[in-house]
Amino acid sequence: MASLLNLPLLLILMISSTSIAQNPPSPGYYPSSRINSIGFGQGFRNLWGPQHQRLDQDTLTIWLDSSSGSGYKSLQRYRSGYFGASIKLQPGYTAGVITSLYLSNNEDYPGNHDEIDIEFLGTTEDKPYILQTNVYIRGSGDGRIIGREKKFHLWFDPTKDFHKYAILWTTSEIIFFVDDIPIRRYPRKNGATFPLRPMWVYGSIWDASSWATEDGKYKADYRYQPFIGRYQNFKIGGCTANGSPTCRPPSASPSGSLNGQQYAAMQWVQRNYLTYDYCSDSRRDHTQTPEC
Known about the structure:
This protein is mainly beta. Helices cover about 10% and strands about 35% of the residues. Strands 1, 3, 4, 6, 11, 12, 13 and 15 form an 8-stranded antiparallel sheet that branches. A hairpin with a 2-residue loop joins β3 (about 55) and β4. The longest helix has 14 residues, at about 260-275. The model is unreliable at about 1-20 (pLDDT under 50).
């Protein structure tokens, strides 16, 4: 076999691109199949921008233009649970625009809140979407918000069809799922670095031009408006804040946490598609993130 040193650069790139499988290994267990879908009105209501929100049978469409974005909120607060939806993103130029599904208690604890995020960072036409996962815990105690971001590319085009995105939050761990593939696990190491206060479930689309796309290099361009996010197949399987103390949230697998097959799938995703890890960022002050 010829040495790679003797091959044209284009051929080397072709070999490299085909060495990565197109789909992740099977996780062997599919948590979303254990949670029934609910209609939007069964679990959520409009929070802001009602004129930029449309419900057509089982699909909720929200959009951003130069006048407003839009967001929705769960009817109840939760202290743990599985929270998911199928989402389809807009193709083309979406720089500066955030489309999200997340948990937060900012309305209850402004300036000192907890949050668990799935955020799609808008992009330019020649680059793929970035999915950002993030965890906030009570800000940082000094008025600043300390994020724990991990960013991923996806192994599919999220503008072509609906795909399932979910957060599993228990008292011991947070797991982010894409099409039932775990992409990130955030374990509880101590109460100071883990969110434990009840949170609401939200979805939104909004202008985050100051930071969303390549640290704010590319801004929202309203020549491309409206920017649209579509949601369906809403799933909530959780313990409400005022519910029975014996309530237990769904688990990642029959054994409780991730099984070996799920870990292998997660490692595959992180090996091939992880683009940023806050713990590996030398610019960060890691005294603020002791779990690193």
